[in-house]
Specification:
The structure holds two protein chains of two kinds.
Chain A lengths: L2 E10 L2 E11 L4 E5 L6 H8 L7 E6 L2 E2 L5 H7 E4 L11 H6 L14 H13 L15 H14 L4 E5 L7 H12 L4 E5 L3 H7 L2 E6 L2 E6 L1 H4 L2 H8 L3 E5 L6 E5 L13 H6 L2
Parallel strand pairs in A: 3-8, 3-9, 6-7, 7-8
Antiparallel strand pairs in A: 1-2, 1-4, 4-5, 9-10, 11-12
Helix pairs in contact in A: 4-5, 5-6
Chain B lengths: L16 H21 L7 H13 L6 H35 L12 H15 L9 H21 L7 H25 L2 H11 L8 H20 L1 H9 L1 H6 L4 H23 L5 H13 L3 H25 L8 H19 L9
Classes of the chains: A alpha/beta, B mainly alpha.
């Protein structure tokens, strides 16, 4: 349990965004942080990587409050792939990735052979070795995201924070990026949008609703029709994945007659 | 938006760092030599050499007139142009990374307008007259620092500087200071107004040995700090979230960068007036050459910025000789087309929508 949130509350501009959230993530677990837009997923992640400070409560890294640790030490333990991937200036892929070595480098020294070797390894791991000298701007969305994963890898941290790493990607890259991350063997906390995808990759899921932790558990326990209706306000069908048995969501239309078995209030009103 | 079809050549064509540095150093020396040789009084390179040799290595006293022109007038002028060119380029590079905006320049944060108010007050009304020759420098530095403190105070948001607020507050306060300067001009007498206008467009005409140490020291200190922060600067240019996640203290870094660029730009303005375009364009030319890694752009920018300014000054004092063109006119006139040609030729892009 090297990463733990204990009674964490976070305010932004004097508004409470996250209230009294507690959970711990076992080492080498892929944990998903789920919840509708505005439920506080990003805020929790940003508090873990110290962009925000807790109003009360604490984030513990190996039992130490993360906001009391030196920033450099935290950056060696916790790496982040955030949504922020537009850059104003032209960097090559290699220059972008080697930024991840920053917490390991001494201020007055240049890049070492180790730094360069680690970067080459990471680019090979994410399948982007051939892109090293390309301009980051010219990459596709999926390539960009994999390069940012490579940057997190060269931090050689044992915790990886992902803030909706797949939200702008095609289905192929969504699974590719998550498969890549799941295969790293590090502790992962990922805010995810797609419940079915989360169920497919996560060992455990923490579901947020309006800044509070609604429930935690295995994907099959957390993702149910009732809970999706309660938390997301959406009427869906949940069916098991044919290969893995993990819950998958099927959206439903509200304005058509679905027969007598399950009728939404709208459909009931409109049927003769 | 980027086109969906991918062009085959997406590797940016870049100079090797050694080529950029050595080429820059050679160009700077050549420009400096030309700058010392060229002028209203014709002197041969041999005259120049005998004067330099006499001062640097001792030996036979050279011709008194040549000595006066070269050692007391042209050489300090060339050196001042170098320092100011390097300073404005450095400040521009850093400001662009600080506010993550390619269109930012060192005067964006209000220092030049603040300095203008100070300088205008001196030239028109003789404020600080007791300081004699130093009055102009002291008052424009005072104006620049005042503007800097005001922008900082207004732009702070719960103790933090954010790029958007910094830009907006800088622009707003700069407009206000310019209004004050314009008002002073309006109230002043016409002869003094000419002096102010000339100063506003920039000139190295007041260069003297005694003026060099202050900008040189300021620039040196700033560059030493910045070179050691170059990686952090790279991270900040990519984004505040990224930098934070990489262990950079973003709040402190931004504050330091803001103060350093303001002071460097303020000092440059104080010794040479408001020389536009160099701080905007030269950083981009440098990035076209060696990319955006600040470990390369900062040292290369010093050399290229210095060269650019020395060349600009040569043009400024020869093109309408025996009169002098304000250097700001030249830098914009050369800088803009150079920039546009490079932009159209290279695969340079800034921002995501390029």
């Amino acid at each position: 349990m090297s990463l733990e949130l204990r009674n964490l509350s976070v305010d932004i501009d004097a508004t409470r965004i996250v209230s009294d959230v507690s959970f711990a993530i076992a080492d080498h677990t892929f944990a998903g942080l789920l919840g509708p837009n505005g439920s506080g997923k990003s805020t929790i992640l940003k508090t873990i990587y110290r962009l925000h400070r807790p109003a009360s409560g604490v984030v513990l890294l190996n039992g130490n409050p993360i906001h009391d640790l030196p920033a450099r030490d935290v950056a060696r333990r916790v790496a982040v792939v955030s949504q922020e991937n537009t850059i104003e200036f032209d960097l090559t892929v290699a220059e972008m990735v080697i930024l991840g070595r920053l917490p390991h480098q001494r201020r007055f020294a240049g890049d070492t052979d180790t730094d360069r070797a680690v970067v080459a390894d990471a680019l090979a791991t994410v399948g982007c070795a051939a892109l090293a000298n390309r301009s980051f701007h010219t990459l596709s969305g999926g390539e960009k995201q994999r390069v940012l994963v490579a940057r997190a890898l060269v931090q050689q941290a044992d915790h990886l924070i992902l803030d909706e790493p797949t939200s702008h990607l095609d289905i192929r890259y969504q699974t590719e990026v998550l498969e890549l991350v799941a295969g790293l063997g590090v502790t992962v906390l990922a805010a995810l949008h797609d419940l079915g995808l989360a169920a497919l990759f996560c060992d455990e899921i923490h579901l947020l609703s309006a800044g509070r932790l609604c429930t935690s558990g295995r994907p099959g326990e957390v993702i149910t029709v009732e809970r999706v209706r309660e938390v997301y306000g959406a009427d869906v069908l949940v069916i098991p994945h044919p290969e893995t048995g993990t819950p998958q969501l099927l959206a439903r239309r509200t304005a058509v007659d679905r027969g007598s078995a399950r009728q939404s209030p709208v459909a009931a009103r409109e049927s003769p | 938006m980027r086109t969906t079809l991918r062009r085959p050549a997406e590797q940016p064509a870049r100079l090797r760092l050694s080529v950029a540095l050595i080429g820059g150093a050679v160009a700077l020396l050549a420009a400096a030599l030309v700058g010392v040789v060229v002028g209203s009084v014709a002197l041969s390179p041999h005259d120049v050499w005998s004067v330099l040799a006499a001062h640097l290595f001792g030996g036979r006293r050279p011709d008194v007139v040549a000595d006066e022109i070269i050692w007391q007038i042209r050489l300090p002028r060339v050196l001042l142009a170098m320092i100011v060119g390097a300073a404005l380029t450095t400040a521009g590079t850093v400001v662009q990374a600080l506010v993550r905006n390619a269109l930012a320049d060192p005067f964006l944060l209000g220092v030049s307008s603040g300095a203008s108010v100070g300088a205008t007050a001196v030239l028109l009304f003789g404020v600080f007259a007791s300081l004699g020759l130093w009055a102009l420098s002291v008052s424009s530095i005072a104006g620049a620092l005042l503007a800097m403190v005001l922008v900082f105070a207004v732009a702070r948001e719960s103790g933090q500087l954010t790029p958007t607020r910094l830009v907006l507050c800088g622009v707003a306060l700069a407009a206000m200071f310019e209004a004050v300067a314009s008002f002073l001009l309006f109230r002043g007498n016409p002869q003094a107004t000419d002096a102010v206008l000339f100063w506003l467009l920039g000139s190295f005409g007041r260069a003297a040995w005694s003026q060099l140490w202050f900008p040189a020291t300021t620039l040196t200190l700033a560059v030493v700090y910045l070179v050691f922060q170059a990686r952090q600067l790279n991270a900040l240019a990519v984004g505040a979230e990224t930098a934070t996640a990489l262990g950079v203290d973003v709040g402190r870094l931004r504050r330091n960068l803001f103060f350093i660029t303001s002071v460097v730009a303020g000092v440059a303005v104080a010794v040479s007036g408001v020389i536009g375009f160099v701080g905007l364009v030269v950083p981009h030319i440098v990035r076209l050459g060696v990319g955006s890694d600040h470990r390369k752009t900062l040292p290369v920018g010093l050399l290229w910025g210095a060269t650019f300014m020395v060349l600009g000054d040569i043009v400024a004092r020869t093109i309408v000789a025996p009169q002098e063109m304000p250097i700001g006119v030249i830098t914009a006139f050369i800088g803009a087309p150079v920039f546009i040609i490079l932009l159209r030729r290279g695969s340079y892009r800034y921002g995501t929508a390029a």
